[in-house]
Every structure is written in C-alpha cells, then in structure tokens.
Amino acid sequence: MDSPVRTIHRDRFYAPVKHPDDAKRDANGALENFKLKLGHSKFCRQSAFQNVATIFPILEWIMKYDLRKNLLKDFIAGLTVGTIAVPQALGYAVVAGVTPIFGLYTCFIPPLIYSLMGTSRHVSVGVFALVCLMTGEVLTDAIERQDVRMGLFNQTLLLMEPGGAGLDGLSPPPVMLSGSQIVSTLAFAIGLWQVVMGILGLGFVTVYLSDRVVQGFACGAAFHIFNTQLKWIFGLSYRKRRGLFCLPLSVYDFVVALPSTHLPTFLVSLVCLTALITARFLNGNAKVMKVIRFPIPMELLVIVFGSVASYFMNLRAVYAIDIIRSVPLGFPSPQLPAFHLLPELFHDSFIIAVIAFSVAISAGRVFAQKHHYSIDSNQELRALGVVNLVGGFFQCLPSAVALARSVVQESAGGVTQVVSIVSASLIVLVITVLGPLLEPVPKACLGCIVVIALIPMILKIMEVGDIPHSLPCNHSSGC
Fold it and tell me: pTM here?
C-alpha cells in the first residue's frame, strides 16, 4: 500500500521529463499562438480605424486622393462654387430675415464640417432657398410670441399698485432674443433631430417622401420666395401677409402698391436681371461653353459692379436706394443657443430637418448613381445633424444641401469634398478682408440674384402634366 502513496507523491512534486521533439512542438505552438494574437490585435486596430472612418469618411478617401488628377479640378470647382455662394449667402440671409453676414457664416463653417463627415462627393452644403424661407417663417412666429409675452408683462406692470406694491411676486421680464439668436437656436434644434434620427438609423424615412413630393414642396416654396423679393426689386413697401391664402393676398398687395414703384431701384433691378438672364443663357449654351470653358460668374459680377456703382454714385443718399449697410469683419464668436426656446421650436425644427434631409439624399443619390459610388443615408443624417449642431453655436442659419450650387459643383468638374474646403476658404477671405466692400451693395441686386436662382424650381410646375404618366398605375396601363 506504500507504493501507490509514493507514486502519487512523485506525480505531484516532479514534472515529467519531456522529449526534445515535444519541447520543439510546444515552442512552435507558442509562436503560432503569439502570431495569432498579434494578428488579432492588428484586426482590432483596423476595425477601430474603420469605425472612425465610418464617422469621418474623409479618412478613407483622403489617403487615396490623386493630387495630379483631382486637385486642379477640385480647386477650379471650389472657386466657382465660392463665387456663387457669396451672393447667394447675402440674398438668402435676407430671405431668412437676418442680416447678410449670417449667410456668409453659414457658407463657411457648415461646408468644412460636411467635408469631414459627408459621404456624397458632389453636394454643396450651406444656405438653401427653401430652408431659408421656412426659417424666416419660424423667426417671424418666434418674434411675435416674444412681443406678446412682453406686452402681457408690461400690462401686468401697469395694473400693479402705485409705489411698486405687489412686485415681489411678479415673474421676471421675458428674455428678448435677437433674430440671429433665434435662428441659430433653430439650427441647433434641427441638428439635434437629425443626429438622433441618424443614430437610430432612420435614414429610410426618405422612402416615404418621393422625389415628386419634395419637388412639389420646393416649387411651391419658390413662388413664396419669389413673392418676398418683389418689394426689393421694385422698391415697394407693404405688409407681410401670414396664414391661409397669404400668397394671393400678397400678390394683391403688390399689384395695389405697384404704382408707387421706386424708379431708381427698379432701374437697378432691370440692369441686374438683364445681365443675369444673359449669363444664364450663355452658360447653358454648349457652343459658348466650348469657347469660354468656364461659366460666367454673373452673380458675383452683379455684386461687384453693384457695390462699385453704389459707392461712387452714392445711390443711398442721392437716390434713396436701400443697401446692405453693415457687414462686420471677423469670424463669428461662439455663443450658446437659447435652450429655453427649444420646446417652442420642437415641431417646426422637425419638419425642416426631414425636408432638408430629403433634399440632401435625393441630390446625393443622383450624383452617386452618375459617378458610380454609394452614399450612406444614416451617415448623411449624422453629418447634416453635426453641421447644424455646430452651426448653432456659431450664429449660422439652418444648413442644407443647395441644389443649384451642387449642380454647379458637379458640372464644373468637382471630384471630392475638397471643393467645399476651397469654397469655404474663399468665404473666409470675404469675412475677414472684403466684408466692408459689400456694404454699398443695393438690396435690389440681392433680390434679382435670388429670383433668377429660383427659375429652375419654379419651372417644375411645368411637369405637373407628367405626374399621371409617372404613377405605377395609370390609364395607359389598364388599371
């Protein structure tokens, strides 16, 4: 019985002696295990990079960027888009109800952020007519609510006893926000909606908004924007209509006020409209483009010559023509949005967020199919959301994909979002150096630029007759 006990004792305290071949096999196995772990760590690092690149797609395409092949194309396209963005930024800011400088801010910061996070290579982000019109409506409502609250507060003060008795229980006066604060808070609210929808993977919602719906909404909005610019073009002054039938009523007000047209303003508008229409015809002529090979930046030329003529002819003092007056220099200072205003903007910001995204994804898919690449709808939501969130801290208007500038960007030969970086750099030059030179620009010039830019959207009404033929079930199909 002693023998088994000693055997157990030996097995516990003495390791078995291994054959040299077994030791070699164990060493090889350890080496293979180390290589496997090393490979797994490389895979983890690669997955981490891919995760970051999913949020910032620029990390993928910038490493494959062909400087010789694409840089010159992107640079020329960026300058072209920038020259169009400057006058549109000034004009659309007026549509939104704020001073023109905030339109320039919106064409500077948002394009830079989108170039980092966007998956479309050909869209231009910044001010967009449809979104600016909706922003102007929200701003008007918010200001009216502020005025009502302040009026009620003043009435309460008047009803108080003389000598201030009873003021202890009175609530503090309502906070009065400027137009820029309301607009930037709206941009923040829109960005919040878009980021949340992107995180939840709700990019599929655009399936329920067909191109016809978005185009019809944009066409209707174009008529409203056109109507708002008539007073600048003709130099008129009449009240702004709100609510049901506001468009026909505004047209009626315009017709009634037409005999009091300010002739000097109308003459300026007539010259601008003639130049812009001529340039649009020449830029759309294939034979002309083969000769000049570069679209005529007539919008920018209208701004330049309008500023020069206004300055040397003193149009404001001599002819009472309304001008921009003030364009401050420098970058926008960061400021917190008015968070207490977010509940009031809950409904309007959601509608603008969905429509802006629908326009963006529609334009992005067209360019992606044409140039054989894919876009991620959820990432587009997140990108536009971050664009508006950051813009809300830098006094920007709500940002969206601008259809006209996107078409120009693609037709001018733009290949990547380097175009947005170049165009934003041109806006920086205007903000930091050239701003005061824009102060004499007549507002009639801005109105003409906006009206001519709306022509393609307005002409969409001619496609109404094609809608029955585009339906899946129509008379010709026997349904």
Answer: 0.79
